[in-house]
Amino acid sequence: MAEIHAICFDHPWNEKALTSLLLLPSSVGLLCREEKAGLGMALIRCAADEAEILTICVVPDQRGLGYAHHLLEHAECLARKRGVVRMFLEVSVNNKAAQKLYFRAGYSEIGHRPAYYVDGSDALMLEKALTKDGQNRS
Ligand SMILES: CC(C)(COP(=O)(O)OP(=O)(O)OC[C@H]1O[C@@H](n2cnc3c(N)ncnc32)[C@H](O)[C@@H]1OP(=O)(O)O)[C@@H](O)C(=O)NCCC(=O)NCCS
Questions:
Q1: Staple 41 to which of 1, 65, 66, 104, CB 3.0 to 4.6 Å?
Q2: Whose CA is nearest to atom 39 of ligand 1?
Q3: What is the pTM of this model?
Q4: How far is the CA of 134 from the centre of ligand 1 (A)?
Q5: Contact 73 CB / ligand 1 (< 6 Å)
Q6: Domains with residue ranges and CATH for the chain
């Protein structure tokens, strides 16, 4: 997971940081791979009936194939099984690929955090209500 994260982000989380997060009982990690090759990963943290997507990424040469969409759906499914009814996340205003992924998956904007990221960019705060049957609410 650390290797994938390092390929995907300018400020990646190393193995130690990811291990600490994954050891928390509230965390759920997902790894998408083909045979031994890691394609993507996601990490969420659940708290009572809410969960936050901490990170999600797909290696550059495997993007646009639906892997992130699958990771997101699977993360929501696992969260739902833990009693989560609401998912949250932050995404940079400059990250159009990730915004498209989230909006297509039914997330909507609930706030704005100015200068949230180390590059000075603002974050959009997004939210999605999870239904029991997994269908998006309109
Ligand atoms: C954002 C990211 C996870 C998307 O992964 P992906 O596997 O390419 O996404 P998918 O193939 O599942 O595509 C999901 C949707 O996003 C769209 N999308 C993916 N890449 C896109 C791009 N570069 N520009 C515009 N839309 C894009 C797809 O078209 C798809 O929409 P559709 O269903 O309408 O076709 C990937 O680009 C990535 O790892 N980026 C770097 C890390 C990152 O920014 N993570 C998000 C942090 S908030």
A1: 1
A2: 57
A3: 0.92
A4: 21
A5: no
A6: 2-129 (3.40.630.30)
Which pLDDT value is given to residue 138?
42
> 1 is written with which tokens?
């997971």
- Give yes or no for residue 39 CB within 6 A of ligand 1: no
Percent of the chain with pLDDT over 70: 96
